[in-house]
Each structure stands twice: as structure tokens, then as C-alpha cells.
Write a structure and sequence with these properties.
The complex is a heterodimer of chains A (303) and B (323). By secondary structure, chain A is mostly helical. Chain A has a single domain, classed as MetI-like fold (Orthogonal Bundle), CATH 1.10.3720. Chain A is 76% helix and 0% strand. With 323 residues, chain B is mainly alpha-helical. Helices cover 74% and strands 0% of the residues of chain B. In chain B, helix 9 (202-216) packs antiparallel against helix 11 and helix 10 crosses helix 11. The chains are: A mainly alpha (303), B mainly alpha (323). The interface between A and B is large, with 44 and 49 residues.
Amino acid sequence: MVADVESAALMRRSSQRLAAARDVARRLLSDPYTVAGLSIYVVFIVVALFADVLATHDPTEILFRANGRVAANRPLGEGFILGTTNLGRDIYSQLVYGSRSALMVGLTAAVFVVAIGTLTGLLSGYFGGFVDAAIMRLADIALAIPFLPFVIVLAAFLRPSTWNVVIAVALLLWPNTARVIRSQVLTVRERAYVEAARVTGASEARILFVHVAPNILPLSFLYGSIAIGWAILTEAAVSFVGFGDPSRISWGFMLQDAFVSQALSRGSWHWFLPPGFCIVLVVVAGFFLSRGAEEVLFPKLRS
Amino acid sequence: MAFVGRRLLHSIFVLWAVATILFLMFRLMPGNPLAAYISEALSAEQQNLIMQQFGLDRPLWEQYVIYFGNLVQGELGTSFHRREPVLSIVLSVLPNTIILTFCGLFIAYAFGILAGAYLAWHRGTWIEGVVVPIALATRAAPEFWLGMILLAVFAFWLGWFPSGGANSAGAMYAGELDRIFSRDFLLHLTLPALTIALYLQGLPLLLMRSTMIEAMHEEFVTMARMKGLSEWRIVIHHAARNSLLPVLTAFALAIGPNISANVVVETVFSWPGLGRLLVQAVSTSDYPLAQGAFFLIALVVIVMNLVADLLYGFLDPRVSHGR
């Protein structure tokens, strides 16, 4: 009986939620920042998925010219859309394949950050007391660890791989999400329907995951879209100082390659500008998206 | 006072935790646990000395106690490659890092505050539509890439500034102060400091702009307007003054993260600071030096966060000191 009443209420709420979601989606799509962010993401996902088709060459292959000499340092055009590197590799194709590793690093890191941050934030805010104190002290410690040095040392000790960057980012970036989720849970926890669920005898786990969690999920996604950018920037920085995954072509790797191969003094703008622009676009898309979403979903957060 | 004491205790706790993580990190790495301190290249006598100094033949918990004893005394071991005490190496590059960070931050915040105030004043004009996305985009750019562009334009193309290092090779100075105030040093400092400034200016700019816009609607600004004060006077004396606090807080909070982010900027410009030292030490497997550089970076970050906290509480009495 009690369960019936509860499920009827839940069903009514879920149909209301569907209508609300449609309304939110409409408002999101009328926000120029959100639309710009979404479009950039769509373009990059398409490029990453169809990298084999879009690339003109094998990104790691050393290319030769018709006269049999290595096609090193070729300028724009001349058969190579963005020219070639000092060892005769096609820059445009590297750029196209780089989108794969960027999206992979960004998405996996964001999933980890959001999962850890949301879970710890939920537990911390809902249970309070000792759990809260312990999690928040852990968060303080994670935030005090110098970020890039930690990632570099970790990537160097465990052999350099993209996964280690993802792990390091997840280990140090969850506290930001956790803190915001926690404060949100503190207010949701006091709402009438949570009280009602408690009165009907719902278990703690049920209240936490069925009644509280859905209300803070949009906030988690907001922080996830920021984490995507952070992870991509971090991977680029780690690759740049030389501790990136040597078997994978990423934009950070391209920049490091250009830097140590004297592309700067040679003025090979076509080599070191495009990867940077790609990173800026993807990261800024996350900013735009979170900015737009913030305005629609949490108008009060903007202050 | 109780607030200061509590923050201090908290910082010491965090420092202890970070030092413990550092201890574990350098012992859990692959290979011989002794490898963190002893290089094959050292003589048997030196190896024995280090064994005793760090208790490397004892159980892990004893090593941990000895590690802390050494840390408190500033004993960080001996660099494998330079054969010098780690402490003196890290301390010799610390000023370079501090100077670089603060110069970059000052330029960024001075520019950001002025530009943000200007934008708030000229709200809704085309300038806003151009500057705000640009400010967002520089925050999204990899810091080292901004450095690469500045380097390519101003050092290699125009040739206005040197391309790396902190001083020209062979330059001699009477002392540290002479070195820092030499024209040569300032020329070397310009590009890396501008890189940091370019990367950071977005936050103070956007923050100043939004707090200013809010402040302009406050009653005391309306009051000032009613008193017939000039627009300029209202902006400077009333609105800007009250908008500065959040920006100053952001400044203090930015110091710590920036010192750790310096790793990449210092690498681009071969700036002899803590970050570059760490990268070099890690890539040459000079573990004692890497550990020491990491610890010092962490120490500076934690101290700066403490200062920021205390300053915030001091500047804004509304901040509740009790939790």
C-alpha cells in the first residue's frame, strides 16, 4: 500500500519531469553559447569517428616526394593540406587522428570525475557527520597536491600511457564536483518529498538514489563538461613535457614534436598553430556548454 | 586568533598528508625501493652513508619515521646527477619561480581589473561581444601553447626578446639582487611572465566585470548618483572599490595552482625554476631531486593557500570564522 502510493507519486513526478525536460531542452537550444558548444562537440565527434576516411595519409608514415626524397617540412598545400613535419609526416592527418585521443581522454576522465565526485558529494551531504568530515578532509588533501607535478610524476613512474593521465586527473579533480554536489544535497535533503519518502519508510539507499540523486544529476553533467576540457588540457601538458603515451598521436604530442623539432625558430606556423586551435575549440565548447546550461538550469548559481 | 590557529593546524595536517603520499609514491614505483635514493653511480661508501641516513635497510614504518625526521630538518638527500644536497639545489631555483609567478599574476590582475571595470561601464556595446569570448578562449588555451606563440613571434620572428633561460650565458653578478634587477634578467623574464598573464587575465576580467555590474545596481551607487557625483568618481570610488574583494580573493587563490602550473611555462622558456627542475629530475630518474622539488612546490602551494585564507578572513569581516 505504502509502496503503491510512493510509486504513483514517482510516476506523476516522472511525467512532470519529462515535460520539464522538454522545456529545458527548448530553452537550452535557444541559448547561443549552448548551441555553439554543442555544434563544436558534434563536429569533433564526427571527425573522431570517421578519422580513417577523413585523413589523407597514415599519420605516422614517413612520406616521400616524387623524386624519392623525404617530404620533410613541406609548406601548406602541395599535396599535403597542412604540410608535413620535419620527418615527413602529414600534419593534417595527425590532427584528424588527434581528435580521437582527445575525445577518449576527455570523455573517460569526465566519466570518472563525475562518478567519484557525485558519489562522494552525495554521501557527504546526505549522511553528514563523520562521513562528511572524512570525505571533505580527503578533498582538501587532493586539492593541495600540486596538480601537474603529480600527473607528471605518476605518468613517469607507471609507464607513460593515456590511462595514467586519466587516473591522475580523476584522483585530483573530483573534489570540485564533490563540494558543489554536497552543498546541493544539503538543500535537497530538506525538501518535503524527501521527508515524505522517509515517513513512508523508504530505506536510506532508496531515498538517496531515487529521490535525491536525480535532482543533482544536471549539476554533475555540468561539472562533467568542464572536466572534459581539463582532461584534454592536462593530457596536452603532460605530452608536452615528454611523458605522454608514445604510441598514440594526440594534439599535445604534436605540439611537443613541433617544439623539440625547432618548428618555432623555423617559423612552421602550419605545424604548431592547428593543434592548439583544436584544443582551444574543444575546451571552449565545454565552457560554453556549461555556461549555457548554468543559465538555464541553475539561474541562481550565476551570482 | 582561534581562526588563525585552526587554519594553521589544518595546513599542517594537509602538509603531513601530502608528504605521506609523496613517501608512498616514491616507494611504490617499479623496481628496487632503494632506487629512490641510491644510484648505481655512487661509490660504495656514499651508498652506505645514504642507507644509514634514510634507514633504507629498515622496515617501512621505520623508514617513514626517519623520512619525517629528515624532512623536518630539511634533509632531502643528495641529487644523483649533481652530487649536491637536494635542498641547496631547490632553494637556489626557488626565487626564479616565485618571481615569475608573481610577475605574471600581477600583470594579469592589473590588466583584468582595469579591462573588467571598463567593460562593466560599457555594457552591451560591441566591445563586450568581442572581448568576452576572447577572454574565455585564452582560458581554454594550453598555457604552453600560448608561450610557444609568444616565443615564435617575439623571440624568433621579431627578435625582441631572448628565447630562453633567465640570464645570458656567462653573465656574472655581485649578488642575487643585482642579478634580479639586471636588464638582462628582466628581458628574459618578459615573455614567460606575459604568457602567464595572457593565460590568467580572463578570470579577473570576467569576475571584475560581473561584480561591477552588480555593484552598479546597489543602493550606494544610486545614492552617489543622486548626490550628483561624476560618473568617473562613482565608478572608481564606489563601484570599483566594492568589487575588488572577490577579485583579490581570486588572486590569492590563484598563486598556489599557478606555481604548480609553472611546470610547462618554465619548460617552454627553459626558465630555471622549480617546475623545470622537476621535469628534468623525473626524466633523468634523479629521484631525490624529483622528490625534493615536488615537496617544495607542495609546501609553497599550501603556504600560499593559508595566506589566501587568512587574508580573505581579514579583508572581509563578513566571512564567518567559525565553521
